[in-house]
Amino acid sequence: MRSGAKVALVGGAFVLVAGGLSYGAYSVLFDDGGGGGLGTKTAAPAAVKTGPPDAKEIAETSKAFFAAWSSGNGPGAAQLTNNEADAEPVLTGYSTEAHIEHVVITPGPAVGAKVPYTVKGTVSFEGQSKPLAYSSELTVVRGLTTGKPLVDWQPTVVHPKLTKGATLVTGEPSAPEIEAVDRNGVVLTKEKYPSLGPIIATLRKKYGAKSGGTAGVETWIKGADESTPDVTLLTLAKGKPGKVQTTIDANVQAAAEKAVKQFSGASVVAVRPSTGAIRAIANNPVTEFNVALEGEQAPGSTMKIVTAAMLLERGKATANGVVPCTPDATYMSRTFHNLNNFSLPEGSTFTQTFANSCNTGFIKLIDEVDDDSALAKEAKDVFGIGLDWKTGVTTFDGSVPEEVGGEAAAQYIGQGTIQMNVLNMASITATARTGTFIQPVIVPLDLDGRTPAKASRSLPSSVVQQLNSMMRATATWGTGAEAMASVGGDKGAKTGSAEVDGQGKSNSWFTGFSDDLAAAGVVQSGGHGGTAAGPIVAAVLRAG
């Protein structure tokens, strides 16, 4: 028992009396309902209670938990949760590892079984100290086996940013703070460029020790694994930041940050085709999970860039060759439709089919290919999709599984089992632009000697020329014309609308290039690609 706490037996229940708590908290270890006092014969055990805890149980349980936690009694607090094994090290570490003391927890009025509260304490470490304050909430539930009211254990009970497997720590971090700079030396901060916050945290964890800085004293949330960035909560003593060079362009990044604010669920990435340098990454909202880099979604008709490249390479179509575009088409008993069942006049070319995003024109060419795995091979061998990209941060590098029949047909138009994010689509556009996959990077390869992923071959020059002309047509008079009207230079585009099961409105996808900059964007439930994602991509391209 921690010094200063007293235990008394009152009315058949143990009460922990802890002084110094502003709300007069107390800890009640509930009895089993025997009802006997001292010296009396114990009654038969009561039946295990069921149903949601009542208001009294919620109040008593939360107060008991707060009292144990705030007094540094981690094991005692953990016993009042429904997962003692996971809760105990986190609650004990609050004082022993995070060095948080003089804790005062003030609960607010319960809302059902949820109890909101504020936490105020002092972090003290090696002569340095600072106050720490934040808010969180807990939920009281009924124990499945005991029937007792218990705190439903979640790491967020201790701190709202704490996740499973993560820990609160105070000390000198192994990686000092960094000063991330753009390609021209402009300092990048999470305050000015919010989408870069999680990326800067990742760069610090990965490259901070080599950046030339010195560590200060901090309180931080240590990620559950090496791929999870640490989150600094409090700086007790500043160190000297090290410098980490990035490929970001501050002007393009600023445009990307502004552009995604137009829609919730928007993401965009810009890449330089000639070098693979990532110029901008933006998400709205900004979360620890970076949708732009780690998302996994069907990309809709933007995938037709890869499909068109495959068809051109195999000689199954040419930019000026005739490709029928009917309202619907069937392959292996699966029927596909165009948007609003549109069709194109007889004799329309492959360029017109591409620029108008005609699904059926692509589906009708599957029999000509006679290889269901052709698209998967093209995506990997030419565009580098599914290889192990070494960008400098955590990324999902795309997936085009080999499929057969109707599922393979769905892949031709970017549906089915294909999974992409806007980084992947920006890279695909960059590869289409030059004909050669250059793996995207956000920090120079020589910073840590990374070996980039390499595709096994490039596109023939004739295919590159045709693909670029088809994308130019999309940007000038096709489905991307309105969005790209304000973009100058040599420009091209491809729109996409990706249907998602259970979602009333399709995801809006758009990708394009202008001179030596490629960008791709997505807006969740944004509808047509040119309407939502298109203006975002155009704004980024204009800034390049």
Structure description:
- The chain has helices at residues 55-70, 74-78, 84-96, 197-207, 250-260, 291-294, 304-313, 350-355, 359-363, 366-369, 374-381, 405-412, 422-434, 461-476, 481-484, 533-543, and strands spanning 6-10, 13-17, 26-29, 100-107, 114-125, 128-142, 149-151, 167-171, 178-181, 217-222, 231-237, 242-245, 266-271, 278-284, 328-331, 334-337, 491-498, 507-514, 517-523.
- The relative contact order is 0.10.
- The chain has 544 residues and is an alpha+beta fold.
- α7 (304-313) packs across α11 (374-381).
- It has 16 helices and 19 strands.
- The radius of gyration is 29 Å and the shape is globular.
Please summarize what this structure is.
The chain has helices spanning 55-70, 74-78, 84-96, 197-207, 250-260, 291-294, 304-313, 350-355, 359-363, 366-369, 374-381, 405-412, 422-434, 461-476, 481-484, 533-543, and strands at residues 6-10, 13-17, 26-29, 100-107, 114-125, 128-142, 149-151, 167-171, 178-181, 217-222, 231-237, 242-245, 266-271, 278-284, 328-331, 334-337, 491-498, 507-514, 517-523.
N-to-C CA distance: 64 Å
**Gyration radius, in Å:** 29 Å
SSE class: alpha+beta
Strand content: 15-25%
Query: Helicity, in percent?
Result: 25-40%
Q: Spatial order of the strands in the main sheet?
A: 14-13-19-18-17
